[in-house]
Write a structure and sequence with these properties.
The structure is a single chain. The radius of gyration is 19 Å and the shape is globular. Helix 3 packs antiparallel against helix 4 and helix 6 runs antiparallel to helix 7. The protein is 69% helix and 0% strand. The chain is mainly alpha-helical. The N and C termini lie far apart (43 Å). It contains 9 helices and no strands. The longest helix has 27 residues. It folds into 2 domains: 93 residues, no CATH class; 131 residues, no CATH class.
Length: 253
C-alpha cells in the first residue's frame, strides 16, 4: 500500500513540475501565467493533452516539438523528475499533513527559483514574497517545520548574514540572494537556515572551483548562488536533523 502512495506522490510532483516549468519560462519575461495555454515557444502551436503529459510526452516526442520539430530544452524533463522525486522524499520525511503541505509548496518555489536563477541570474521578488507569506502562515501552526519564534529569528539571522556578505562582496552577490535566504529562514527557522547557508557555501565553492579548473568558467564569470541556497534548504529539510544531531554529539565529546 505504501508503494501506491509513493507512486501517487511522484506523479503529483511531476504534474506540479509541469506547472513550475511554465513559471520558469514566463515569470522572467513578465508573461501571464494564465493565458495563453501551454504552447510551443518557437512555433506558438497550442499543445494537445497527450503532448503535455509530464515526463512521458517528452520521451515520446524525443525532446522535440511535434509540429516544428524544434528541440525542447532538457530542463522541462529535469524539473518534472526533480519535483516528482522531491515529493516522494518529503512525503517519507513529513511528520504530519500540515508539515508535508508546507514542505511541498516550499520545495516547488525553491525549484522555480533555482532554474530561473540558472537561466537569467535573477530571483523574482514575487517568489520571495510568496515564500515569506507561506513561512509566516505555517509558522502559526504547531505542526509545521518551525514555530513563529523560530521563523522570526531564522529570517532575521539569515538576512543579517547575507546582508553582511552583500555589503562586502563589492557587487559580486545580488540583493535577490539576500532576500531569498531571509525568506528561507522564515520557513526553516534559525537552526536549519544556518545549516542551509553552510551547505550552500560549501557546495557553491566546490562547484565554482571545479568549473574554473575545467575551464568552463573564469573567476570573473558570475555563478548564481540561488541554486545552492535551494539545495542547502532541501538538504536541511531531508537530513538536517541528522546533521545537527551528529554535530551536537561531536561538540559533546
Amino acid at each position: 500500500m505504501k508503494e501506491v502512495y509513493l507512486i501517487f506522490m511522484f506523479i503529483t510532483g511531476s504534474i506540479f513540475g509541469s506547472f513550475i516549468n511554465m513559471l520558469i519560462y514566463r515569470l522572467p519575461k513578465n508573461l501571464s501565467i494564465i493565458h495563453p495555454p501551454s504552447h510551443c515557444p518557437t512555433c506558438g502551436k497550442k499543445l494537445k493533452f497527450w503532448q503535455n503529459i509530464p515526463i512521458i510526452s517528452y520521451l515520446i516526442l524525443k525532446g522535440r516539438c511535434y509540429y516544428c520539430k524544434n528541440k525542447i530544452p532538457i530542463r522541462y524533463l529535469l524539473v518534472e523528475i526533480i519535483c516528482g522525486t522531491t515529493f516522494v522524499l518529503l512525503y517519507l520525511k513529513a511528520k504530519n499533513h500540515i508539515e508535508l503541505i508546507h514542505m511541498l509548496i516550499f520545495s516547488l518555489i525553491l525549484t522555480t527559483v533555482t532554474f530561473i536563477d540558472l537561466e537569467h541570474l535573477i530571483i523574482p521578488d514575487e517568489l520571495n514574497i510568496v515564500l515569506l507569506i507561506i513561512g509566516s502562515v505555517f509558522s502559526l501552526t504547531n505542526s509545521s517545520i518551525t514555530d513563529l519564534k523560530g521563523a522570526v529569528i531564522g529570517g532575521i539571522a539569515a538576512l543579517a548574514i547575507m546582508l553582511a556578505i552583500y555589503l562586502t562582496s563589492k557587487g559580486k552577490m545580488g540583493f535577490g540572494d539576500v532576500k531569498f535566504l531571509g525568506a528561507i529562514g522564515v520557513n526553516l527557522g534559525y537552526k536549519l537556515v544556518l545549516l542551509s547557508f553552510f551547505i550552500a557555501v560549501f557546495t557553491g565553492s566546490l562547484v565554482g572551483i571545479v568549473l574554473i579548473l575545467t575551464g568552463m568558467k573564469s573567476r570573473k564569470d558570475p555563478l548564481p548562488f540561488g541554486p545552492f541556497l535551494s539545495l542547502g534548504a532541501i538538504m536541511s529539510l531531508l537530513i538536517g536533523d541528522r546533521i545537527l544531531k551528529f554535530y551536537e554529539i561531536l561538540i559533546g565529546q
